[in-house]
Every structure is written in structure tokens, then in C-alpha cells.
UniProtKB/TrEMBL annotation:
Top-level taxon: Bacteria
Protein name (Swiss-Prot/TrEMBL): SDR family oxidoreductase
Residue ranges of domain Ketoreductase in the record: 7-190
Keywords assigned: Oxidoreductase
Family (UniProt): Belongs to the short-chain dehydrogenases/reductases (SDR) family.
Residue intervals passing through the bilayer: none
PANTHER family cross-referenced by the UniProt entry: DEHYDROGENASE/REDUCTASE SDR FAMILY MEMBER 7B (PTHR44196), DEHYDROGENASE_REDUCTASE SDR FAMILY MEMBER 7B (PTHR44196:SF1)
Keyword Oxidoreductase attributed: yes
InterPro entries linked to this entry: KR_dom, NAD(P)-bd_dom_sf, SDR_fam
Keyword Transferase: no
């Protein structure tokens, strides 16, 4: 059986932030990483950097709102490496705003990327994991789902939907074939809030990130910890915040 550091690991949302840091961390520990996102130029740069450091990485254009893209990512792992050990469903967007703004398109986009994207990953990899008799879903939720604050209603709701989905999948997988891990980070310094439309709110979030945020490498190390456990040990939930976050 392949050792903890020789796993074949697919990561969505790998073109920046937590996903990119996780790719670097896992590759440095000996995993082969298959990286998916829409910005393939960023993925290509990341792959080149990992390879220059002696690691193994490949890039694939993946839009997680498209079910077929997740299937291609999983199929690529099997075609190239004979198996997939871990799927890190990390792609996400945060379009934070009060409900009264009625940004319905943004609500739907968060459901499409943050929830449907995760479900697409499960539907693509679960049959394979069952066939293999082993496999590991790692999914990025958020502390937003644990401490509810104004402007994050849909984002937090969707992240909690992901958490409960993973818990149900865990309970359905006690035959030992599938492990699930939900990572819930607090403020992490990434590009996540750069996409918030309202400039005042964007500036506020950026300030929070700059003042409080931890580096994405901290989340990457937590993911590596979960991934490197032996098959009979499942790290179900990891919550990590900046120490000063309330
Ligand atoms: P970034 O904005 O840096 O990264 C988001 C990633 O998601 C990018 O690689 C982006 O790639 C990808 N992505 C977005 N939409 C899609 C899509 N439709 N298909 C495929 N990939 C997509 O932010 P983070 O690193 O912070 O975010 C990673 C995860 O962490 C998210 O799920 C986020 O909700 C979660 N999180 C972040 C926190 C933080 O404080 N930063 C706190 C808690 C949770 P591309 O645009 O190239 O497709």
C-alpha cells in the first residue's frame, strides 16, 4: 500500500490561497498533486514551481460548477496513476453582503461553487473510493458556519451544508472505505475577499485579513496532518483560527 507521503491527491481551487499552499505542502511531503481551477496560467506557474523543487504536480482546467470537470479530474488521476487517494474540495467564493441587498445572483453563485462544487467532487470520486476500498474527502468549510455574523448568511449557510454533508457521508462510510475531513478556517490571508463587490465592505474585509489573518500555509499543514493519518484514523473536523479572532 502506498505510504502517507506517496499519495495521489487532487485539489480544487488550487490556483491561489489555501489550495495553492496545500498543493505546495503536500507535494513537498512527497504526494503527487493534481491541481484544478479555472485560471490555468496560475496553475501552470504553480506546477512549474513544485517541479523545480523536485515535486510531482499536474494541472487541469476545472470549473467545479461543471460536474463533468470533476469527473475529468478524477479520471485523470486513475488514467495517469491508477488511483486517487484524496480529493481536496477547496474551491470557494465569498460574496458577502446583507440579505437586504438581494444579490440573488451572488447567492446562487455561492451555492453553485461552494456546495454543488463539493457534491460534484463526491459524485465523481465516491464510486472510485468504494471500488478501491479506500479514499479520503477533505473539504474546506469555514468558521463563518460556526459563528454566524451579518453579511455572511448564504456563505455561512452553504458552508454548514457542506459540513453536514460530510458528516452524513462519514456515517454512511463506517465500512472503512471512505474518510471525511472538514477543515474550518477563520481569517486566512488570501485573495478570497478581493472579489467582494462593494468597495467599502471589501476594504473592511481586507483590513480584517491583514490585521488578523493567518497565512494559508497554516491551513495546508492542518490538511497534511489529516491526510497523513493511517487509514484507520479519521480526523473528522479541524477548526483553526488566528489566535486573536473572536
Ligand atoms: P482564494 O480566492 O485565494 O482561492 C479560491 C480558489 O477557488 C481559487 O483557486 C479559485 O480559482 C477557486 N475557484 C473559485 N471558483 C471556482 C470554480 N467555479 N471552479 C474551480 N475553482 C474555483 O481564497 P481562499 O484560498 O481563501 O479560499 C479557499 C477556500 O477556503 C474557499 O472554499 C473559502 O471559502 C475557504 N475559506 C477561506 C477563508 C479565508 O479567510 N480566506 C476562511 C474560511 C474558509 P479560479 O478562480 O482560478 O477558478
Amino acid at each position: 500500500m502506498n505510504g502517507p507521503n506517496e499519495k495521489i491527491i487532487a485539489i480544487t481551487g488550487a490556483s491561489s490561497g489555501i489550495g495553492a499552499a496545500t498543493a505546495r505542502e503536500l507535494a513537498a511531503r512527497g504526494a503527487t498533486v493534481l491541481l484544478g481551477a479555472r485560471r490555468t496560467d496560475r496553475l501552470d506557474e504553480l506546477v512549474a514551481g513544485i517541479r523545480a523543487d523536485g515535486g510531482r504536480a499536474e494541472a487541469l482546467a476545472v470549473d467545479v460548477t461543471r460536474r463533468a470537470d470533476l469527473q475529468r479530474l478524477v479520471d485523470r488521476a486513475v488514467e495517469g496513476h491508477g488511483r486517487l487517494d484524496v480529493l481536496v474540495s477547496n474551491a470557494g467564493i465569498a460574496r458577502v453582503a446583507p440579505m437586504t441587498d438581494l444579490d440573488v445572483d451572488d447567492w446562487e453563485a455561492m451555492i453553485d461553487v461552494n456546495l454543488r462544487g463539493v457534491l460534484h467532487g463526491i459524485s465523481a470520486a465516491l464510486p472510485l473510493f468504494r471500488r478501491q476500498g479506500r479514499g479520503h474527502f477533505v473539504t474546506t468549510a469555514s468558521t463563518s458556519g460556526l459563528k454566524i455574523v451579518p453579511t455572511q448568511a448564504v456563505y455561512a449557510g452553504v458552508k454548514n451544508a457542506v459540513r453536514t454533508t460530510m458528516e452524513a457521508l462519514r456515517q454512511e462510510s463506517t465500512d472503512g472505505s471512505v474518510r471525511t475531513t472538514t477543515i474550518s478556517p477563520g481569517y486566512v490571508r488570501t485573495e478570497l475577499v478581493d472579489h467582494v463587490e462593494d468597495p467599502v465592505r471589501r476594504a473592511q474585509y481586507r483590513q480584517n485579513m491583514a490585521e488578523l489573518g493567518i497565512g494559508p500555509d497554516a491551513v495546508a499543514r492542518a490538511i497534511a496532518f489529516a491526510v497523513e493519518q493511517p487509514d484507520d484514523v479519521e480526523i473528522g473536523d479541524i477548526v483553526l483560527r488566528p489566535t486573536r479572532q473572536d
